[in-house]
Amino acid sequence: MLIEIQNLESAVLEGDVQSPFYQIMMLENCSEFSVDFTSYISPSYSLVFLSPYQHFQWQGKGASLIKKLEFHGDFYCIEYHKKEVACNGLLFNNIYLEPFVTVSKMLFDEISLIFDKINDEQSLKNSFSESVLKAYLQLILALCSKAKSSQIGQQMICQDELTVGLKFQNLLESYFLKEKSVHFYAQELALALDTFSKRVKKELGKSPSQLIQDRVVLEAKKMLHLTYLSIKEIAAKLQFEDEFYFSRYFKKNVGISPSGFRDRVGISIVAK
Predict the structure, then answer these.
(1) Domain around 100
(2) What proportion of the chain, given as a percentage, has pLDDT over 70?
């Protein structure tokens, strides 16, 4: 299975869900859930975007998941198609943004119809067109990327200066390979450790330690999916003591070993 639509209006929503596929979930009502152990509340008419092997768990009783789409990276490579649809780092694979986008009811209904068209095309079995399926998926990603970009733009207009969270984000992107201590970043921003942690948690929704961990894991996933580097070489680039420590760290946070992740997610066509 490289792409699949599930209609889930009557499904029981529970448990910790992990998948080797990219996932798009349509939530009709306000819903509570966690992604990688961080809790979120999404308004009505939201779509959740998950990368392979992200932890997802429902919370509360108000969830209304009406449709879910899953696709494998071999079917549609978001890195390869980044010029057509800038969804990588916007809808997927961004530890600083909420993993969902909220849209108007009109757009939500339009996307729901595209889901139905994918389902109809697949029902043709041996005569379905893979290019048509990819075009439908790309349209969904393009519409949601546009909505997400607009929302981020509005948020930036409201900020007249860099917040502690944004300063930390910039520092983390520069130093996460070398500096994995919260104390380093607090010191760089001339803040007491407790003050720094509270400000980051309030502004970004995650603790500094969680963001550091998420950034390292994200980079590991990228290297496993987008390169032919060995596990030992990846461990060295991420500055772990050895490949065994890296493997334990990765499995603890992702739930699967680095080699298992690579086997099930695959190596991208853009890998070098």
Answers:
(1) 3-157
(2) 92
